[in-house]
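RETRY 2/3 - previous attempt timed out on the joint model. Re-submitting the same 1078-residue input unchanged.
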Amino acid sequence: MKKRILQIHLLTCLFLCLQLPIFAQSKVEQWDRFEVSFKHTPKENGFATVTLTATFSTKDTTQTVAGFYDGNNNFVVRFMPQKIGIWNFTTHSTIPELNNKKGSFECVKATGSNHGPVKVSNIYHFKYADGKDYFPFGTTAYAWTHMANGVQEMTLKTLKNAGFNKIRMGVFPKNYDLVKEEPEVYPYLVKEVKKGPSGNDLKVWDYTQFNPVFFQKLEKRIDDLRALGIEADLILFHPYDKGRWGFDEMPMEANLRYISYLTARLASFRNVWWSLANEYDYVKSKSDADWNTLIKAVVQNDPYRHLCSIHGSTAKYFEYWKPELTHASIQDEAPVMHLGAASIVRNIYNKPIIYDEVGYEGNLKQRWGRYSGEEMNHLIWMGLIGGTYVTHGESYSFKDNRDTIFWAKGGEFKGSSWKRIAFVRKIMEETGPIEPADVSRDYITTTNGKGSYIIYFGKDINESWAFNLPAKNSNFEKPKKGNRYKVEIIDTWDMSIQPVPATFEISDVNDYRMYDKENRRIRLPLKPYIALRITEISQ
Amino acid sequence: MKKRILQIHLLTCLFLCLQLPIFAQSKVEQWDRFEVSFKHTPKENGFATVTLTATFSTKDTTQTVAGFYDGNNNFVVRFMPQKIGIWNFTTHSTIPELNNKKGSFECVKATGSNHGPVKVSNIYHFKYADGKDYFPFGTTAYAWTHMANGVQEMTLKTLKNAGFNKIRMGVFPKNYDLVKEEPEVYPYLVKEVKKGPSGNDLKVWDYTQFNPVFFQKLEKRIDDLRALGIEADLILFHPYDKGRWGFDEMPMEANLRYISYLTARLASFRNVWWSLANEYDYVKSKSDADWNTLIKAVVQNDPYRHLCSIHGSTAKYFEYWKPELTHASIQDEAPVMHLGAASIVRNIYNKPIIYDEVGYEGNLKQRWGRYSGEEMNHLIWMGLIGGTYVTHGESYSFKDNRDTIFWAKGGEFKGSSWKRIAFVRKIMEETGPIEPADVSRDYITTTNGKGSYIIYFGKDINESWAFNLPAKNSNFEKPKKGNRYKVEIIDTWDMSIQPVPATFEISDVNDYRMYDKENRRIRLPLKPYIALRITEISQ
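RETRY 2/3 succeeded.
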């Protein structure tokens, strides 16, 4: 018996001496997460004193990524392989137990709903890494991961039954008029507890010691979203703190350490986007120069170059032309309230435009939180016909402040616009990215460049419409006399698609337009929010 | 007699040996032009081989400016003094006859209509150097200085009787559908004449030899404009050449030499603005990088930092965020066709926005050249209520191509919108710069921040209007309960201002608005294009 124990001890010792990774997969899908961890008992603060990186190589590609301390003497390296094949890795650290650890895994082809991370495509649009079009139909639930676990589970169930594929959510908890919940866990360890001005407890954080549990819980939720095909548009900073925890006014050194830690943990999550801030200009402790420093830090720490932007208050436009920012994430209703404005913004930035806040469907007193469902749905379509994207949000508050308001806390939707998202998303996925067909002249007609057009009449109620197309076709080949088309009437609110029982054929260009050769008209429902999809019929 | 002649010869010799300036003023108004010239017979090409600069000093200010060769052995230095007092100058050249010439003059206070050059003021607006507000009410006559002299004189007479204070005009002649005139003089000397593809004469220019007469004529016209209080928004390059002269496709070296020469001649003209190009993206020989090089060259060669921008084709937005560009000079009708869009563009760039081309009043077949006068006037007001500026243009073509079309050739106005410019300009000069009062929420109300508001109803015909103001007031102090106001009804088309015989007093904020305490309404004319001016009455 003693001998047996000795043998086991020897094996354990051998194992520890070789310092093999405690855990690692042998096969990983492309764009999935490879993770390997090592045991080491740090003498001091493992977050601040231990540096760990790992170099991953396959064929002609080598990438070095940062590892991180996950508490409990656990040091972790995560990696998102972008190429299939055998990957080898070696760790680097000044700590012998973490240095020069080697291993390998096979990266295999993605399967099922794994299409990889979302990237910018064709200047104004998005695609998954595998080439599949991605159209951002997002909603907003800033603090859902800081609510009670039941609410979080309810949120996931709600999202599962809706059509969204993106959600805006904060890393830090939120302290705001209608959101007062204290989170269960915090991102940092408490250094001391002081008495605040009103006798309340004020936690003083140790910004050099992260709380791994906080981040593990966040990661679980990001993985839950991934399983639902939803991108996590992760907000790194926001102003909704107001002295309660102080995460909006950490020293710059702490901000940068937080970014290093967060990116080391999360960059390998394929469904993560970096949103440097919500309403960045309301964060009074940070200047534009600070934001540029933080943006650069995120980009430098992210080996995969996830989508990255920053969001301001109403009509506050950051310098979205900066190369670090992959797209513009804008709060402003002006671009979608009237025709023609949405596409101006994209013409200026030459990047994808997401109007991540144009107001919310809801019943709040605040004017940004009391749109009808019809208005919210209309604004989403107003974005689309400008070749841009609009994020949904819902802020219904019944009962009292303990009610969940989806915009802040998640929970259940109570409105009506969310039900239309799957419908409009399906139309976009069928049609492909659309562009204004005749920029600054025709404000309601978009083209996919391959013979399909989407026209949106907005709030106008038209008895009929004379079949006609613009002679221009964005930068694509122009339509030709004799082209034949079918038409579908889309009721964007009632979610119906009605084919028109006729075929139309365009004649010569007449004053920049091409009309049906018999000048035929289409009867339209006497309703607002009607769109048309026009599709060329192959000869 | 012989002795007398000898004496004169000796004096002449002495004079030449001392090389005193041939001509120089002793007194110059602030922002007027000081000019001094020197005789020297260049051995070779005086444009290419002689370098001349001069340093001007007063009290704590020293500026070095470039001189230029004006032909006929004449070397000229021009300077625009910006400070009053005694200025001393010294020339620098490798040519002894041009080197170390010294002189001085007194700069005296500006008088009359001399307000100095126009500068950016308060982010989005303009002021003259003396502090007087400047509101750009421009028109367009691209090639007016290349027309026959009679047409040029007619143009000046037309401008004298209109309300414009800016004109867009090209340095180079224009070859376009409706503009075929051959200029009388060219900016360069001819090296040789070749036969073109259709047997036509093709001039080959010597890009190292400028034609001073060309520039002298241009300068005369800029001075003529100055006398009328009109800024010359001078277009340095344009694409309307199409192989006729080749000024759109000179080698980069020639472009840079042209900029050096032009700025040496013209930077001292206080009413000059630099517009690097019209429709820059249609100039196929130049890349964006080339444009940035040329923009930088202009700014580096301009000691006074005149206003500087560049203009693209429809909906083509240059990188107006570049610090070299003082304002955005945009071709796009989208920002003024619907409410709310004009101010988005200013919120993005945080610079003054001039929509220098939104289409023209006229009768052309082209859709950009057939607006009604009402539409042109309306678009100018649409710009103003966005806190931006719109340039007028007129493209009426009667008879045939020999008819003058103001947009291209100058001559006489034939439309109706030009008659409204003095009216709207007077309103703006009385009211001061205006800003959207409640950005992205109220699209028709602007504030001057000092108790005055301008509301524009556009094409809407309203029977009456309930007196109310937004509770917000841009970044200015908010209106207070009890404030009292008078109202004037402005008919922007009929050019009438009708005071409303009542005083209104605002009550508490009610859902973001402050209504008259008695909820009184104002009867409005049943017409489109109605505006209101609301002015606080001092207690």
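Confidence is low (pLDDT under 50) at residues 10-19 of chain B. Closing ticket.
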